[in-house]
C-alpha cells in the first residue's frame, strides 16, 4: 500500500491518498476544510458539476444535479442507464473529488488537510465505482493485478476536467445560484463552450 494512508473513523477503515491530520474526526470535515459556509457550498457545486460534465462528455444521460448546503448528503446527481465502458462510469465517480480539489487549488485554499477532508467527503464515490465495476478494480490500493485503481481513475478524471473545466465552472455557477440543474442546462453549456 505504498503511498496510502490508513485511518480508522467511526469503526471504519478508510484509505486516503492525502495524509490525514493528527486529530482525525469525521464530524470535523468542515473544520478541516477551513472554508466558510459560502465556500463550502461552492465546493459542493464544483464537486457535483465535475461529476455531471464528465458524465455528459462520456454520453452518460444526466437527469438532475443538485446541491443542498448544510444537509447530508450535500449534493448528488441522478443519471440514466449506461451500457458503455465501465471506466467511463468510474471516471465520472472520481471526477467529483478531482473537481473539488482543482477548485480548492484554483482559489488558493488547498492544503494537505483540506485535500484529505475533500477526499474523505467524496469517499462514497469510491464505493459507487466499486459497486458498478464489471472489470477488476481496486479503488484503495496500488494492486498491480487490477486494471484500475483510484489514482488511475483520478488521473483520467483530471484529463477530462482539463478540457471540460469552463463548462464545469458554468454549471457550478448555475448550482450556486439555483441549487439545481437539469438536462436543459447541460447541452446549452456544452454548446456554449464549443464542446461536441
TrEMBL record:
SUPFAM superfamilies: FtsH protease domain-like. It comes from the Bacteria. InterPro entries: Peptidase_M41-like. The lineage of its organism: Bacteria, Bacillati, Actinomycetota, Actinomycetes, Frankiales. It comes from Candidatus Protofrankia californiensis. GO terms for molecular function: ATP binding; ATP-dependent peptidase activity; metalloendopeptidase activity. One of its GO terms (biological process) is proteolysis. This is Peptidase M41 domain-containing protein.
